[in-house]
Amino acid sequence: MRNERLAVWLHGRHIAWLSGTSLRPRLQYLPDVVGEYGAGAALLSLSLPLQSKPLTGPSVLNFFDGLLPEGQVRAHLADLNKVATTDIKAMLAIVGSDCAGAVQVLAEGVDPAGAGELLPMSDAEVVAAVESLPTWDLPADFAITTSLGGVQSKILLSREGGRWYWPAGGAASTHIIKPDPLDSPIPNLLAAEHWALDLARAAGLPAALTTMDRFGTRDALVVDRYDRTTDHRRIHQEDFTQVLGLASAAKYDQSTAVPSRLTHVAAVAAPHARNAMSFKLDLLRAVSFNVLIGNGDAHSKNYSVLIRETGEVTLAPLYDAAPTLLLYARSSNAGHSVAGQARLNYITLDHLVREAANWGVDAGAARSTVTEVLTATAEAQVPAADELQHLPSLVVDRASDLLAGGVARRHSVPD
Q: What is the pTM of this model?
């Protein structure tokens, strides 16, 4: 793939060429796209604004690398296709027809219009596909052409009329199926994520819709993709690493420096929102909720923004939000530093208020917003599965701790 170029499509329109090498990719927007939207407009990524000259450097590499999975999932995908894990152009040429958001990366000459096809799957085929993860057990004619970031094993399918379909040739997947990981030290992780996302919605926060289901011998979380409409149209989005042009490997913010990474996100994204302060308060609500539930995996790939075709930016719904600390005492990394504190065990309401102040939020408005999230979440009545009966009361206890001005005591079950 060294000298071949790939076509970058957005919302079904060819907008750019991706050329160069995999380690030094080059992004060239088409002149008519720059002319229509104007130089500096946010279309594909906030870190890759439109311009006439080619874009190169880490931001280009990190955006496209961030469309691909990480870790063992990536290794399996590369091995299956006989390419190197570092050859992002070769991998995107194979699986770039359905990525996160509305972007598609295709071989030159391939037009996604009408190319996609939904292949019906039998119940046995779906079970085999889920049970075999992190490898794949698929019918011989079911080529993998979809890609999603992250380290968890998952399969991307489409559902229509209660039936599962394989999204082939650029068809849009509508659901993510994640079976319980085989090697995680955290028990009942996906059931807890399902409960937490239900809790977020009950507290008034936008969150991805999920259900728990069983596929053969494995329980799995079924996630409705928030970047897909009910009629299978794509909605564009990018995660916070892509917003800032960072590598996926840098997704955990361990720094206690001020201003924080969240401050940088607010500075980059809020100006593109219809109301910059509303965006900042939405971000504060999401961060406060993750601190409250003890989400030790709230890193920069587990927050995203939606980018409308007009260039307007909004915060994406909560996703991958699980109370990991309440299940596993060692999961105490906050994912993002909050006013210089990166450990969930030591973040207080005052940390959240000071963090928001660094974004330009009035201290009174910040305190009121955090208090509302803590109170609404504590008051929400969302039953948990039998094996997670301790979670609702623990979250109430943590909310009480934070509202009283102290740290949210760990309250986790014994290791």
A: 0.95
